[in-house]
Amino acid sequence: MVKPIIAFLSMIFCICCARPANQEQHTPHILTTLEERDLIPEGTAYDPITEQVFISSMYKRKIVAIRKDGSHYDFAKEASDDLWATFGMEVDPLRRKLWVITSKGEGGILTQIKIEDGSWDSQLYCYDLDSSSLIRKYAVLASVPKGYCFNDLTVASNGDVYITESITNKIFILQHGADSINVIFEPSGYTFLNGITLTGDEKSLIVSSTESLLRINLEKKSITLLPYTAPIKQRPIDGLTYYNNSLIGHQSNNLTLFYLNEQEDSILTNQIIDTSGLDSSTTGEIGEDGWYYYIANSQIRSGIDYDKMIIMPMDSLEPVFIKKLRL
Q1: Residue ranges per domain, the chain?
Q2: Is the pTM of this model over 0.85?
Q3: Which residues make Cβ contacts (< 8 Å) with residue 61, sequence separation at least 6?
């Protein structure tokens, strides 16, 4: 009987030792409430210069900017510049650009103003942060077969934009200075590529899929699963953000912090940091002084009847809450 007890205590000791000492309580706060119940937001971005948070709207085909005091306005109005449904976004603060994914596909993307051509397609929009004007639209190389749907993106310090695609499950890239978007990786055996972020040294991408988190070494062009050394509840992860040797993952009704090892090639443990009022919490972004800004209730599942492809009745929808918490 003694040996099993010792073994059990040793296991507990190892798990506790693997648990980083900086785990602490994180208290969520409401940054603002968006009364457009049918917004169906998806992407989040943050500008460290103006301290504004940007929220993309799938259903309304627009981008909302939120000031530090919680007031907000339409940065890009509904269907302006022929926007389709807006998804992942990220700010390039050095070049004062806002990168925005815009996608369409009548089989799975519902918009208030109907898009006449319902075929699956995506583009990348680049906005000037200071003037709110569209700088340019970028399309995929004509040689790449159609039928793709961009989902999320991340921007490297050199200006390269990496994009996940969720139908044919590819990673695309718009290299800084290039005129077209091209395929860079085609992970085999993984479905619904979604959240994407760079590691701290920018040598690898971390990408979420239905099956697990993937680590893509940009120098070696290798794709491996991101292993974990402690019991971790596996759910598909939507938005994914890197912060100080950890990953923030949106798991629908959970916001989870995954602690990485020093080499950032495996997960040591995880901590759920928010569950309150979350309804398909899709994405978030790091702001100033370790604040994390995120969509609490996108209602991207509960707010749409996907069988009939209609928005749910307005009285069944909730106002959209944008939260923040200190990491």
Answers
A1: 34-326
A2: yes
A3: 78, 79, 83, 84, 85, 86, 102, 111, 112, 113
